[in-house]
Amino acid sequence: MDMFFQGQKRTYESFKTQIKPSILPAFDSLREYCIALGNNVVEDVRAHRVVFGKSLSFRWFADLEPGLEDITIKIQRDRREPQKIITLRTGDNLDEIKKLIQDAYSTIR
Among 32, 62, 63, 78, which residue's beta carbon has the most beta carbons within 10 A? Predict the structure, then answer.
């Protein structure tokens, strides 16, 4: 899989050092949830966000970007539909967001 990336791929361990401790538990929880959706989930750690796609075609379904005191979550069900953008703050319930992520993952072909 690394053959598709140029240079050294960034790891989540190095990425999470830039996440504020107040939002790190929620970010970790969402990341773990995305990865657990299936063995075809691909994680792409970028400079300021982590994107999750489905299979080698990398049709992305979730994009997580940490802020100072929140997490911006973009969810993409289909290329023809607008992205759903959610701002998660410390203490917000993750259940509804996880349902939306599950739906997007299941919808992508």
Answer: 62
Query: What is the rounded CA–CA span in Å between residue 7 and residue 69?
Result: 31
- The Cα–Cα gap between 1 and 85 comes to 29
C-alpha to C-alpha distance for 65 and 55, rounded to whole angstroms: 21
| Structure token pair of residue 57 | 């075609």
Nearest to 62 by CA among 81, 46, 83, 92: 83
CA separation, residue 65 to residues 27, 32, 50, 69 (Å): 9, 15, 7, 11
Sequence-separated (6 or more) residues with CB below 8 Å from residue 29: 94
* CB 101 within 8 Å of CB 72: no
For the chain, give the number of residues.
109
pTM: 0.88
